[in-house]
């Protein structure tokens, strides 16, 4: 990291302590002037990462009457300036503070909660730092880039008693909730198989794939952070980082936190998982220089009750549970079942009701106030993407099956696989602990 941006652990902790000792001058808009709610009724927020999802989340939270966005952070100056301008325009003031280092934002004592919408490889470090700084967190999916990060984040949230919501917003949509209630109430009988359909990846990189100097408005060293500092390529920055395994996990990990999250919900596996996972049929771009994630893939799972699942781009998008007495298939904007009557709103699926939320971000804010678990908390989100981590592990080991103990979260009978799964290889000076 360059010296200008390098903030040592000692300096960071000192800054945080100073923030507690010397109160910030809180913007007048937060104090309830100009028709705004009083501070006792408002949740003060910062947003870390202002790309597509970050900007969308900022707009959505600004639309919530019981919170106020007061700070934004990004290593791309263009993103940062645009985001701050949008916040100031919304509140008709110039109070939004801009940060290029997320730790400086987290040192502010007046901020209650943060949005983490960085590239995947930054999710864990930002979210863990936030909960340690006593902030509640709304984190984009997948909640972490590696399995070890997921375990560390779950532990940190529990240790510090923070509220965390993962942006798996499908849980807050009626169609997905209805599908889950149909399955859990036994409408389709005993579940035999689940098909989780995710998008197909990319056979080749698109855009400007020539290595070059980073643009002056991007702190590329800080952007790479704990991951390898590969040569700067425009086609691997902003959005397209997803297709390189150093920064994202391809379409498998980009979407598994959506549809497999729903699969686990319907199976009652929110805090559990499969007992065996195996990769199959992974196909990669011919040239993996710029994008190196699989475009064709399948992850096969077996659960302790005999249910099997297939997570693959070869299935129709969404989640389909197949039982002895019928089936249910749900995707965004689509809910189908072997009995069409089941999907009608007036139909009662049965006495077992799923956690009800009709506003994902609103659910987060409500839980910040009540201190009750969100509809998609850290462990649930971590468990829903674990089959993806195990599938990538299986693929890296030649496709051999990974026997898994979901209770203890450990690989059974394969020390090499266990070591790889639990290892943390961050670029210095970044560390998970």
Strand content bin: 15-25%
Structural class: alpha/beta
Report the major sheet: 9 strands, mixed
Distance from first to last alpha carbon: 18 Å
How many strand units?
15
Task: Determine the fraction of residues in helical runs and give it as a percent range.
Answer: 25-40%
CATH architecture classification of the largest domain: 2-Layer Sandwich
How would you spell out the order of helices and strands? HEHEHEHEHEHEHEHHEEEEEEHHEEH
Q: Which shape, going by the Cα principal axes?
A: globular
**CATH homologous superfamily descriptor of the largest domain:** Dihydrodipicolinate Reductase, domain 2
* Biggest sheet: strand arrangement: 13-12-11-7-10-9-8-14-15
Average residue-wise pLDDT? 92
Number of separate helices: 12
Q: What is the total domain count?
A: 2
Rg to the nearest angstrom? 22 Å
The CATH topology of the largest domain is given as Dihydrodipicolinate Reductase, domain 2
Detail the topology: elements first, then pairings.
Blueprint: H1 9-21, E1 43-48, H2 52-62, E2 67-73, H3 77-91, E3 97-99, H4 102-106, E4 113-116, H5 120-132, E5 136-139, H6 147-160, E6 164-166, H7 174-184, E7 191-197, H8 220-224, H9 250-267, E8 276-283, E9 296-302, E10 308-312, E11 318-323, E12 327-331, E13 334-337, H10 360-370, H11 378-396, E14 402-405, E15 410-411, H12 415-422
Parallel strand pairs: 1-2, 1-4, 2-3, 4-5, 5-6, 7-10
Antiparallel strand pairs: 7-11, 8-9, 8-14, 9-10, 11-12, 12-13, 14-15
Helix pairs in contact: 2-3, 5-6, 6-11, 7-9, 9-11
């Amino acid at each position: 990291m360059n010296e200008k941006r390098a903030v040592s652990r000692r300096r960071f902790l000192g800054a945080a302590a100073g923030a507690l000792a010397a109160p910030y001058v809180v913007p007048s808009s937060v104090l309830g002037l100009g028709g705004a709610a009083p501070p006792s009724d408002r949740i003060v927020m910062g947003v870390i990462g202002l790309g597509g999802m970050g900007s969308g989340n900022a707009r959505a939270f600004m639309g919530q009457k019981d919170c106020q966005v007061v700070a934004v952070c990004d290593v791309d100056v263009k993103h940062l300036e645009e985001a701050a301008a949008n916040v100031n325009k919304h509140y008709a003031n110039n109070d939004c503070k801009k940060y290029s280092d997320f730790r400086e934002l987290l040192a502010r004592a007046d901020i209650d909660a943060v949005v983490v919408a960085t590239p995947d490889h930054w999710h864990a470090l930002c979210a863990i730092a936030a909960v340690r700084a006593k902030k509640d967190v709304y984190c984009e999916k997948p909640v972490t880039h590696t399995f070890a990060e997921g375990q560390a984040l779950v532990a940190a949230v529990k240790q510090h008693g923070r509220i965390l919501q993962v942006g798996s917003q499908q849980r807050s949509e009626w169609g997905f909730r209805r599908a889950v209630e149909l399955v859990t109430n036994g409408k389709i009988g005993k579940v035999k198989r689940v098909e989780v359909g995710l998008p197909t990846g990319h056979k080749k990189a698109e855009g400007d794939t020539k290595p070059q100097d980073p643009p002056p408005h991007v702190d590329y060293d800080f952007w790479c952070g704990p991951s390898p500092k590969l040569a700067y390529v425009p086609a691997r920055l902003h959005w397209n980082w997803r297709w390189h395994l150093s920064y994202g996990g391809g379409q498998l990990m980009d979407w598994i936190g959506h549809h497999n999250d729903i699969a686990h919900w319907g199976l009652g596996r929110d805090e559990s998982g499969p007992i065996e996972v195996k990769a199959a049929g992974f196909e990669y771009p011919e040239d993996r220089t710029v994008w190196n994630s699989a475009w064709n893939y399948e992850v096969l799972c077996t659960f302790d009750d005999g249910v099997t699942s297939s997570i693959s781009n070869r299935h129709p998008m969404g989640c389909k549970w197949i039982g002895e007495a019928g089936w249910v298939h749900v995707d965004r904007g689509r809910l189908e079942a072997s009995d069409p009557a089941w999907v009608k709103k007036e139909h009662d699926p049965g006495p077992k009701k799923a956690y009800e939320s009709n506003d994902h971000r609103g659910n987060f804010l409500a839980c910040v106030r009540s201190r009750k678990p969100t509809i998609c908390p850290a462990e649930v989100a971590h468990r829903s993407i674990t089959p993806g981590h195990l599938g990538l592990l299986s693929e890296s080991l030649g496709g051999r099956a990974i026997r898994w103990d979901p209770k203890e979260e450990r690989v059974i009978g394969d020390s090499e696989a266990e070591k790889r799964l639990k290892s943390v290889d961050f670029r210095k000076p970044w560390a998970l602990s």
